[in-house]
Amino acid sequence: MVSSNGTTEKALRDGHYAAKQIFCRDWLIAWSHRRRFEVGLQLARRLQGRRLLDYGCGDGTFLALLHAGAAAPAESTGAELDPFQVESCTRRFGGRNELRFISIAELDADSYRGRYDIVTCMEVLEHVVDLERIITQLWALTSDDGRLLVSVPVETGVALILKQAARRVAGWRGIGDYPGTSGYTLRDYWASVFAGAAQHIERPIYGGEVGPSFHDHKGFNWMALRERLRGRFSIDETVASPIPWLGPRLATQVWFVARKKKPEAHA
After folding, report:
1. 142-153 and 253-260 strand pairing
2. Residue 24 Ramachandran class (φ > 0 left, ψ -120 to 50 alpha, else beta)
3. Contact criterion met (CB below 8 Å) for 2 and 242
4. CB atoms within 10 A of CB 185
5. What pLDDT digit, counting tens, does each position of 183-196 carry?
6. What pTM was estimated for this model as a whole?
7. Angle ∠(145,139,221) on CA atoms, nearest 5
8. What are the structural domains, with CATH classification, of the chain?
9. Contact residues for 88 (Cβ-Cβ < 8 A; gap 6+)
10. Are 230 and 150 in contact (CB under 8 A)?
């Protein structure tokens, strides 16, 4: 279990995503997500940044856990696209000068450029359609000697078969959003199980008419993302979760620990 004090855990349980993830009624789903957070907390604490940004902070789970433990940053900002999540996080975790929540749109201000020693981005980039724009923004927000921590799901290899089976069972039990996950044909499965570092199947796009366009998990390729990140960042580590020693090809999630490249290095 991810450690937290009683006050923090109560606030966490009221979170939209935490209820479906670390407090999920399915023990396997809950354990996998808890381990993802534990690995991320270990990495963030090891880097010991003074200023941290959680880009796409969701319901604030990661920042709340980070500040409930030792070696918390002096200042943390959670940025989220959904105004409901910004309001909810501010209400549940507000009142602390070292922790605040803002809209992602505010990050366009010059005052945020190069401000953060650590930028975390957990379970966000797999949903992004205009990926290059977001990677460029993450690069701009990171300080010259800063680090980027990215967590994304593994949706290729044997892990995909196991995860799709778990999602199907969870859907039958009415747990989470898994009944809405795009289905795979036999050809999709074949291409995904044997995927390399290039995008292997076409990814469906949703939204766009009223809200922003986004992908679901179908067709996401963590290896292709790693190559895209290398345009702006140097990848120092690739860390698997929930069991790091199994490696990313047998994992459900993967973390990238990346170092910002100088402008001339990616020109």
Report:
1. antiparallel
2. beta
3. no
4. 9
5. 899 999 999 999 99
6. 0.91
7. 120
8. 6-156+202-265 (3.40.50.150)
9. 14, 15, 16, 59, 60
10. no
pLDDT at 161 over 80: yes
Tokens of 150: 């990215």
Burial (CB < 10 A; 0-12, 13-18, 19+), residue 175, is middle
Residues near 196 by beta carbon (within 8 Å), at least 6 away in sequence: 223
Sign of the C-alpha dihedral, residues 215, 221, 222, 225? negative
Query: What does the pLDDT look like over 126-151, one tens digit per residue?
Result: 999 999 999 999 999 999 999 999 99
Give dist(CA 152, CA 221) in Å, integer: 9
Residue 150's SS3 state is strand
Write down the residue that tokens 């973390």 correspond to: 255
Cis ω for the linkage preceding 242 (within 30 of 0): yes
Q: How many CB atoms lie within 10 A of CB 189?
A: 14
What sign for the dihedral angle of Cα 253, 254, 255, 260?
A: negative
